[in-house]
């Protein structure tokens, strides 16, 4: 095998839980291959450099192996090698999130909203 679809490879390498999510990420320009925006059908080859943005962060990886099947996490990690600069950037981002501390959320209401409250909520959201 000389190449495989990028959405299948991203799914097999466990960057996304489903192939559909990988495909959407490509459509939203969150995946670049060799500094070019990647469409879901783009071929991935050995040695390609990919930049991947997902919920876990931003990864810059080199493709070491090809696969169209999703395997265990241990197998998935053998498909790529993350660059040192990418590891360092993700580590710094994690430290910054840790320093910010827990995000303050609004306290949950103690009772159900009244009819008037619901109307205000709906008008605020633009539902009516």
Quick recap:
The protein is of the alpha+beta class and 128 residues long. The protein contains 5 helices and 7 strands, in the order E-H-H-E-E-E-E-E-H-E-H-H. The strands form 2 sheets. The protein has a 5-stranded antiparallel beta sheet with strand order 3-2-5-6-7. A two-stranded antiparallel ribbon has the order 1-4.
Give unreliable regions as ranges: none
- The number of distinct β-strands equals 7
Structural class: alpha+beta
Number of helices: 5
Q: Roughly how many Å apart are the termini?
A: 56 Å
Tell the overall outline.
Answer: elongated
CATH class (first level) name: Alpha Beta
Proportion of strand residues: 15-25%
The secondary-structure element order is EHHEEEEEHEHH
Strand order, biggest sheet?
Answer: 3-2-5-6-7
CATH superfamily: RNA-binding S4 domain
Name the helicity range: 25-40%
Number of structural domains:
1
Description:
The protein has 128 residues and is an alpha+beta fold. The chain has one domain: RNA-binding S4 domain (Structural Genomics Hypothetical 15.5 Kd Protein In mrcA-pckA Intergenic Region, Chain A, Roll). 38% of the residues lie in helices and 20% in strands. The protein has 5 helices and 7 strands, in the order βααβββββαβαα. The protein has helices spanning 6-12, 19-27, 73-77, 84-100, 115-125; strands at 4-5, 31-33, 36-37, 43-44, 49-54, 57-63, 80-82. Strands 3-2-5-6-7 form a 5-stranded antiparallel β-sheet. Helix 1 crosses helix 2 (19-27). The radius of gyration is 21 Å and the shape is elongated. It starts with a strand and ends with a helix.
